[in-house]
Write a structure and sequence with these properties.
Distance between the termini: 39 Å
Structural class: alpha/beta
Number of strands: 9
CATH class: Alpha Beta
Radius of gyration: 17 Å
CATH superfamily: NAD(P)-binding Rossmann-like Domain
CATH architecture: 3-Layer(aba) Sandwich
Helix content: 40-55%
Strand order of the largest sheet: 3-2-1-4-5-6-9
Number of domains: 1
């Protein structure tokens, strides 16, 4: 860590899905550690602007852009930024709660494209630059309890796509650790964000350890600290960050 306590000074972080929720908290925590931010937001100019203002108040150089992501074909603006990223964070992916017999082919395509193919494409786009610079950090997000293959009754399609990311991060570690590149899959538990409805917040809190949701800011800070680790002992890991939730 340098004298100012900003170990990521000079590093560029692309945060996909970084204008709100967990993604925004990771972005802000990276800003505190000195990273220059490129923040992607899906649709809310107001939310994106607020996140950038908070990051700049922390002393970070922060820019951002909006791009709707509902298919790989629409991902061009995001992929264009990946080559300059020293740190890639992908905190985007649609959720679906439905039993398999009610999951349509279109829904399968959307879930697989956005939760597996898009993170994979962003990783592929970022790797050449990271390899040239001999340093890179990749943070992907799984779903709750998707660090291992498990059975899910009501969100099996989503979980199947997210579980595939565990193979991706292990593959990145195996192939590119010698290039100074490290990857991590974070599987959060029940996290309190602005996207939760009051009813969901209450229902989830009743099932969470200690009867309270995980603070998104605490999760974001922990993850940003890991991305700044030297050496990255966690390289290739899929980490459950659910505070001991167990079944849900």
């Amino acid at each position: 860590m340098n004298a100012a306590g900003r170990p990521l000074d000079g590093r560029v972080a692309l945060v996909v899905g970084g204008s709100g929720g967990i993604g925004a908290e990771v972005a802000l925590a990276l800003a505190k550690l000195g990273a220059k931010l490129i923040v992607h937001g899906g649709s809310s100019e107001q939310r994106l602007r607020a996140t950038l203002e908070r990051a700049r108040a922390l002393g970070s150089v922060a820019d951002g852009f909006l791009a709707g992501l509902d298919s790989i074909a629409a991902a061009g603006p995001v992929l264009e930024h990946a080559h300059e990223a020293d740190i890639l964070v992908v905190a985007h992916g649609p959720f679906l709660q439905a039993p398999l017999h009610e999951t349509s082919a279109i829904e399968w395509e959307r879930l697989a494209s956005m939760n597996l193919a898009l993170p994979g494409a962003l990783v592929s786009a970022s790797l050449p630059g990271m390899r040239a610079r001999r340093w890179g950090r990749i943070l992907l997000f799984g779903g709750t309890r998707t660090e291992l293959p498990r059975a899910f009754r009501t969100n099996a399609a989503y979980a199947a796509c997210k579980t595939g990311l565990a193979s991706l991060v292990r593959s990145i570690a195996a192939e590119y650790a010698n290039d100074g590149i490290a990857s991590l899959l974070a599987c959060p538990g029940l996290v309190d964000t602005e996207y939760l409805s009051p009813s969901n917040r209450t229902a989830w809190a009743s099932k969470a350890p200690g009867g309270r949701l995980t603070a998104a800011s605490a999760l974001g800070a922990w993850l940003a600290d890991r991305l700044a680790d030297e050496p990255p002992l966690w390289n290739g890991a899929s980490v459950n960050l659910d505070e001991g939730l167990g079944s849900f």
